Amino acid sequence: MITSLSISNFALIEKLGIDFSEGFSIITGETGAGKSILLGALGLIMGKRADLSSLKNKEEKCVVEAHFNIAAYDLKSFFEANDLDYESDTIIRREILPSGKSRAFINDTPVNLAELQDLSAYLIDIHSQHQTQELSEDDFQFRIIDAVGSNQAFLSNYSKLLKAYKKDKSALANLNESLKAILKEQDYNAFLLEELLAAQLKSEDQTELESLFEQLNNVEFIKENLYKSLAVASEEQFGVIQNLKEIKTALQKISGFSKEYQSIFERLNSVAIEFDDISDEINKFSENLVHDPQQLELVNQKLQMIYNLQKKHQVSTVSELLEIQNDLDNKALSASTLETDIKKLEESLAKTASDLDAIAVSIYKNRETAIPVLTKKWAEILLLLGMPNVRFKIEVSPTESYLNNGKDELQFLFSANAGSDFGLLKKVASGGEMSRIMLATKAILAQYSKLPTIIFDEIDTGVSGEIADKMGEIMKDMSLQMQVLAITHLPQIAAKGNDHFKVFKTTADNQTTTALKLLSKDERITEIAQMLSGSAVSDSAINHAKALLN
Questions:
Q1: Could you report the per-residue pLDDT of 342-385, keeping only the tens digit for each?
Q2: How many CA atoms lie within 13 Å of 111's alpha carbon, on the beta-carbon side?
Q3: How many CB atoms are located within 10 Å of the residue 127 CB?
Q4: Mean pLDDT of 427-435
Q5: Can you tell me the mean pLDDT for 112-119?
Q6: Locate the RecF/RecN/SMC N-terminal domain: which residues (predicted)?
Q7: Domain stop point among 334, 349, 364
Q8: Distance between first and last Cα of the chain
């Protein structure tokens, strides 16, 4: 419930503070006195957009602050989900700066308007005549039936399961699309993979094969130069080996004369040994080198296969071909994995669907049970409100579709007069009838669910005195379950309230401001008498006002 409201620098309000109590509070005032300004300020608290025109003094900021006792609303999960500090006495504040910028706070934590709107939906319900159109909407009609049918727990479980069902169904669709794409290319991918596997590629193949190809392709040239090298090294009189031996013998003779000669002799000896090894290697190369056209052709074929594969896959190395081979192999495996995943998900979906169906049946049965109870209560209340022949025809039909609130379709028909045909509510009910039906609906909902503070904004327009008296009684009964505020022009309703506030204008220094005050007992008698007879209050009006208050 709202416990207090303070407003500064908003429209015609310079500064205003008001404390609200539990039960039924009345707000009255002449047309244009500023009752709509109060609703505008509450609209800011509920997250509606603001602009600079709301500021009374354009040089100062506007602040609207409301305190709510939310201990009974079970909203801790909302605060946790939105990372807000939970307080049983929660404070909502809106500020409009002279720059036009607007700020919102919940318990001093900055929030965006969407969060404010979400929270305020649990706290305040401002009900005016134009909002009676909700009665024609399926969602609202189901809410009424489900409240009477005590479907809240079933709907909560259904909603959680439906969320999981939709998530899994979306995942299944994605998996099937992936599998479809893989299967579409499966034959071609299998051909590519088989082609790469047949090549028996190794990352070092290409370099080795290219080197071997160059050797086999140039056997005669290589042999010629190897023989030439061996001839120069091994010629009996003038070969390098013979010359090295002569130098070695000469240096050995003088090596004992100094360390330097000994060192150069040892170095030459190492060269001679190394050159002998080189000569032996050249000789082996020469002996092993054979002109083999068949091997040359095999190497050439292997290289051409690698070059063709590289061209086909638009890569330049064997390593890249091996990566493609691995990717194709994984695709073949992923098709099998996807089929397994799809089967598991289909089984999970079938289980979830079965659970959803079971809950939907329970929801349907409760709705069927609730309909006669609801129509009876409507008829009883609307009889008091001057609609003795009202009839409702409500039918709930199960469907195969998983809707947000079950699997049912709703047909909601209405007849206001005896002998008249049933029709859609929004087409056959007048504005006054819709207002009375909505009041009856709210009164019924107050018995079955924890409604927020409700503010009735002149829903009694065009209603006679006797009906107004009944409307006041209904609102007063509602206030036993919740906090009710009514903005009214009718004395019969005003007299039912526990507290009575008056909105009025004052003028000083050519400045008009809107003010609000809680009326005392005597002031209340006078206010109701004025509502009965106008500004000239007669004794009979005073007595009538006292009678209404009693």
A1: 999 999 999 999 999 999 999 999 999 999 999 999 999 999 88
A2: 26
A3: 18
A4: 82
A5: 92
A6: 1-507
A7: 334
A8: 27
pLDDT of 365: 96
In a domain, 355, yes or no: no
Give the DSSP H or E segment for 229.
helix 219-234
Residue 318 contacts residue 306 (beta carbons within 8 Å)? yes
What's this model's pTM, rounded to 2 decimal places?
A: 0.67
Within a domain: 146: no
What is the pLDDT, as a whole number, of residue 185?
65
Whole-angstrom Cα distance, residue 449 to residue 61?
Answer: 39
Question: Can you give the pLDDT at residue 55?
Answer: 84
pLDDT band at 230, cuts 50/70/90? Answer: confident
Mean pLDDT over 407-420 rounds to 89
- 345 belongs to a structural domain: no
Domain with 233 in it: 186-334
Q: Is 177 exposed, middle or buried (0-12, 13-18, 19+ CB in 10 A)?
A: exposed
Residues 81 and 199 occupy one common structural domain: no
Q: For residue 153, is it within any domain? A: no
Q: Would you say 3 and 17 are in contact if contact means Cβ atoms under 8 Å apart?
A: no
Check residue 239 and give left, alpha or beta (phi > 0: left; psi -120 to 50: alpha): beta
User: 212 and 313 share a domain?
Assistant: yes
CA separation for the pair 421, 425 (Å, rounded) = 12
Residues 6+ apart with CB under 8 A from 117: 46, 47
Q: 441, 451, 507: which is closest to 479 by C-alpha? A: 451
